[in-house]
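Hey, quick one: can you model this chain's 3D structure?
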Amino acid sequence: MLSIIVPAYNEGKSIRQNLLQICEVISQTVDDFEVIPVNDGSPDNTLEEINKAVENPASNGKIHPVTYDVNRGKGGAIKAGVMAARGEYIGFLDADLDISPDHIANYYAAMVSSGCDVVIGSKMHKESKLDYPFARKVFSWCYFIMLKVLFGLSVLDTQTGVKLYNGELIKTIVPQLRVDGFAFDIEILALAASKKAVIKQMPVSIIFSRNESFGRIKFKDVWKMFTDTWKIWWDLKVRRNY
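Sure thing. Here's the predicted structure for all 242 residues.
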């Protein structure tokens, strides 16, 4: 089974249609799958719209929501989704669908055929196609350099919002996570690398749909991402001898 986790915070305007679109796209190539939207303590009508998607006949019983009242951050939502997932393969996809669900189907095929442990979308892959604000490109490059210095990972891009993991691997990693914010991705990948996981990087196509350069990511989120990254480095390098 393929499990697709969709973290959602204040996505009431689009989450219903986007979940149905994910089901439609994935069902074209994968028979056994589930979509797990995680309502991350949204104060808007996100949960109501998720439930409407569940009740829609087009979902074909594939949508299995997780919800809680207090916002935990994207990393916290991913944790909750992973623990609820039943799949042999577990993927993450951002709720706004700036990245099409086609990617999950393609990454799934690549993982099954290659036998790798992780497939990640990389904006820096030479075949990637990006309609992406310049400010975010600069941020991505700066963050990549920081991660290269701190962790020495071979991956070029840790933050793109589409990834696929071997289910057994990710379920062993999630209980060890100590970061709930946007930096959770680097902690997962660093822990996966420490377990000698084979990580495959694939191209991604991104159409940025939000008006602001960083979407709903604010300066405080960027700052927390940097401070969390240093916390991860300290934890892995010093306490866990990564």
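One thing worth noting: The chain has a mean pLDDT of 86.
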